[in-house]
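Shipment paperwork, digital attachment
Item: protein structure file
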Amino acid sequence: MTVPAPRARRRPSTLGRLLPLLLVAALLAPLGLLATSNWRQITDDRNLAARERLGVQYLTALAAVTDALVEAQSAAVDGRPDARDALNRAVEGAAAVDARIGGELLSQERWAGVRAKLEALRGRAAADPEAAYTAYGEVSDLLLALHRKVRESSGLVRDPEADSFFLQDSVGQELPEAMVAAGRLRDLGTLVSRRPAAEQPRGLLELTGLRVTALAPATDLVDNLRSAVDGSESTDLGANVLTPLDTYQRSVEALAAYSAPGKETGVVDPVQLSAAALNAHRSARQLQPVILTELDSLLVERIDRLDRDRWLTTGAGVVAALLLSWLAALLIAAGRRARRRAALTATHAESPDTPLPRDPWQPPADEPRARQPVGAAGEPETAQWGAFDAAR
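Attachment content:
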C-alpha cells in the first residue's frame, strides 16, 4: 500500500504576519488622536485662564487709577488744593504692572497715552474748574478705553464660564463706567450751581442726560453680579459679594433720587447730590476689590481643574498605550512560535529522523498512561469477545 507523503504546511504570507500589528495600530491611532485632541483643548483652556489672570492683575492696577482720578477731578472742580499723592501712587503702580505684563496684553502704547494725559493735568484746579472738568473727562474716557483693551487682549471677554464672565464684565466695564459717570454727575452738579441763571436750564438738561449715563451701568452691574451668584457653583461667591453689593445698590438708589430735579424747586440740590455721589463712590470702592478677588479665585480653581484633567488624559493615554503594546507583544510572540513550529514540521517532513517539537499541551512520551481495562485472566478485552464474534 502506498502511503501518501505529508503535505507541507503553507507558510503564512507577509500580510498574514502583519495583520495583528495592523489591528493594534488601528486601535492605537484613534486613541492617540483622541488623547492628543483632548490634551490640546485642555491646554488651550488653561492658557486662556492664565492669560485672564494677567488681565485681572492689570484691571486691579487700573481700578486704583480710576478711583484716584475721580477724586482728583472732584478736587479740581471744587478748587481744593491739588492732592495728587494718591493719583501719583496709583499711576506708579499701574506703570509697574504695565512694564511687567503690558507687552503680552498689548497695552503699553495705550497706557503711555493715558499716562501722558495724566501728567498734563497738573495745575488744573487753580486755573479753571470748567476746563479741568473737560480735561479730566478726556483722560477718563481714555482710561475706560484701556479697560476695554485689557479685557479684549487678555481674553476676559471670551470667558466660557457664566459666573466668571459676569464678574469680569462687572469689574472691567460696568463698575469703572459707573464710578466715572457718578463722579462726573457730582462735579457737573457743582458746576451748574455756579453758572448764571440763564444757563441753568441747559445745565439741567446736561445733568438729566448724565444721570441716565451714570445709572445705566450701575443697574447693569447689580444685575450682572446677581446673575453671577445665581449661576455659580461656588458657595463663597454669594457670601462674599452680596453684602457689599446690597450696600452699593442702596447708594445707587439714593444717587438716583438726589440727582433728579425736585418736584417743588425744579432744580437739583448740589449738596445732596454731592453727598449721594460720594456715598456711591465709597461703596463702589469697597465692592471693586471683592469682585476682583472672587474673579481671580475662580480662575485659579479652573486652572487647577484643568491641570488635573491634563494629568488624567496623560495617564489614560499611557495606560492604553501599554495595554496595546502588551497585546502586540503577545501577538508577535505567538506568530514567532507558529513560524518556528512550521519550520520544524517542514524539516521533519524532509528528514523523518528529526524529532518534532513536543506539544506543550500533550504529556511527555515517558509519562505513564491509563490502559484499557483487561479481563480476569489478564487478556485484553478484545480477546474475551473473540469467541462471541466466532459464534456469530
